[in-house]
Amino acid sequence: MSKTxxxxxxxxxxxxxxxxxxxxxxxxxxxxxxxxxxxxxxxIGGDGIILVCxxxxxxxxxxxxxxxxxxxxxCGNGVRCVGKFLHDIKGIDKDVITVDTLSGVKILQxxxxxxxxxxxxxxxMGKAILEPKEIPVDLPADESGEVMNRDVDISGESxxxxxxxxxxxxxVVFGGDPDQLDLPVIGPKFENDPIFPNRVNTExxxxxxxxxxxxxxxxxxxxxxxxxxxxxxASVVAAVRNGYCQENEYVKVILKGGELEIRYMDDGxxxxxxxxxxxxxxSVEVDL
Length: 288
What we know:
Shape: globular
Strand content: 35-45%
Number of strands: 18
Radius of gyration: 18 Å
Oligomer: single chain
């Protein structure tokens, strides 16, 4: 049986999702819906779908499904777009908007233009998680209780990795030019390595200077994306912990789809600033 669904295509720095207004109820089988609609050749195309739902603890709730149908805990670029969706489309005209996620309630300081349309947000992403069991990564902690600059073997190749969770697991690799990597080959090896029991997002970083990083990312369940907000946050946390950048200062992260500004505070909180844009709206007929 086919059904017509209204959608809004949105992106933050090119990290694009298909958004659905679910205040009156969620669609059946969102996992399969994401697999169908994320196909860039035979459907709308995107890194997944995001359901914008009612919440009893925030202005709205987001549920994120990757392109392979798996449900994600959190998406930094996605949560900014949910803030814009709630502000511009649902009419929640507030300077500060809260969004309920599987990683807790996120607080968004909204940015607007002269027409009171949201252009982006700074998000309180919460505290970075560094304990190996909480990330999770199946490696022993160092003296600081972390996994930083650790030598590992991934599919027969040696890497130095730093592991952080921003509500979802990240593995950060510093060194070299990420543009020269064969990421479609390397990315899945990291994502599915046994040391990451829940799979992992992997960021490959070139340190430009102490306020600038260049990043390329492989996201679990979606493959290479043009940007990853939580990955940018994890990368700045790892850069500070490894001595490349400073606490409490904005660090610009250059992604394939744009730029984000991240602050890792001395109390462990992480803030992310970036854009949120509507690409187009439409309707799609699906047969689940």
